[in-house]
Amino acid sequence: MEQEILVTNTKKITEMVKEVVREQLIEFSKWFESKINSEDRILTRNDTADYLGISLSTLSRWTKKGKISSQGIGDRVYYKMSDIKRSLITIN
After folding, report:
1. What are the tens digits of pLDDT across the range 64-87?
2. N or C: which end of the chain has fewer CB within 10 A?
3. 79: exposed, middle or buried (C-beta count within 10 Å: 0-12, 13-18, 19+)?
4. Beta-carbon count within 10 A of 84 CB
5. How far is 63 from 82, CA to CA, in rounded Å?
6. Which residues pair with 79 in a beta bridge?
7. How far apart, in whole angstroms, are the C-alpha atoms of residue 76 and residue 78?
8. Which residues contact 4 (CB under 8 A, 6 or more apart)?
9. Mind spelling out the 3-state secondary structure of the chain?
């Protein structure tokens, strides 16, 4: 009888711990996602093209025309999320 009570309590405790951990992970993932989506996020050319739903050639063309600004280190090209959002225009 004592073993059944212990097993039942252990199962309940395990489920309670799982629930608390799950809730904390959800909170952490929301916090982490908000940090990732911040204005200072740096995107690669591929990430930027995917984000905007355009091809890499269109992104290059827009960059050369000055429609969107890019940053670089060496031969790498990056885009700031804030610059991407600033480049978007309102269409009525």
Report:
1. 999 999 999 999 999 998 899 889
2. C
3. buried
4. 19
5. 15
6. 43
7. 7
8. none
9. CHHHHHHHHHHHHHHHHHHHHHHHHHHHHHHHHHHHCCCCCEEEHHHHHHHHCCCHHHHHHHHHHCCCCCEEECCEEEEEHHHHHHHCCCCC
Cα–Cα distance list, 51 to 26, 59, 64 (Å): 24, 11, 19
The tens digit of pLDDT for each residue in 42-66 reads 999 999 999 999 999 999 999 999 9
Write out the two tokens for 86.
Answer: 């600033």
Give every strand in the sheet of 71-73, ordered side by side.
42-44, 76-80, 71-73
